[in-house]
Amino acid sequence: MIDATEQINAVRRQIGERVLEAGKARVSTIGQTYEAPIEDVWDACTNAERIPRWFLPVSGELKVGGRYQLEGNAGGTVERCDPPRSFAATWEFGGQVSWIEVRLTEEGDGRTRLELEHIAHVDDDLWAQYGPGAVGIGWDLSLLGLATHLSSGAALDPAEVAAWSASEDGRLFTALSSERWCEASIAAGTDKDAAQAAAERVFAFYTTPPEGAGEPAQT
């Protein structure tokens, strides 16, 4: 796996809001530049044969109007697609519906910038308890998987990923991700003490989940 600190520092995170028809939604934005051409990054993110090499097995129809399902995780409907620039889909998990939007931008010298927005109506109590790390840590792990795959061309071994996640490096990665999402939350106006308390809780959840408890959110 890529060095934990190096990967964390390569990613940018931001918290914002968006007004939808159903009301105010929270927007978590995560982005990274990859040393890969836009066509390769697009294929890795949209090809059903490649997605499991760095993320999760996926079934369904990956086209506008099609339904998809990630194994053991979210499913939804593909709403927009503009190859190789952007796509948008619903993100449905645990009876809740949110949305993801992915944008790719060429940055020259064969490099590509990926930005992902996760837009969700989040209960105020749940947000106060876990903060943006509830979804943010999961997306950080996903971008780590994509970075590893794009840099090596190889498929990640789920057993090796699980072992790494439980290792000292894996725990460091989760701790650093939680810390950076805490910083993004404070920058967005969250009280510092409240943001830090939420970061501690979400780190504990990801590293020692309570028996029988469901995850605060999924990516």
Automatic annotation (TrEMBL):
<protein>
    <submittedName>
        <fullName>Uncharacterized conserved protein YndB, AHSA1/START domain</fullName>
    </submittedName>
</protein>
<dbReference type="InterPro" id="IPR023393">
    <property type="entry name" value="START-like_dom_sf"/>
</dbReference>
<dbReference type="InterPro" id="IPR013538">
    <property type="entry name" value="ASHA1/2-like_C"/>
</dbReference>
<feature type="domain" description="Activator of Hsp90 ATPase homologue 1/2-like C-terminal">
    <location>
        <begin position="36"/>
        <end position="150"/>
    </location>
</feature>
<comment type="similarity">
    <text>Belongs to the AHA1 family.</text>
</comment>
<dbReference type="Pfam" id="PF08327">
    <property type="entry name" value="AHSA1"/>
</dbReference>
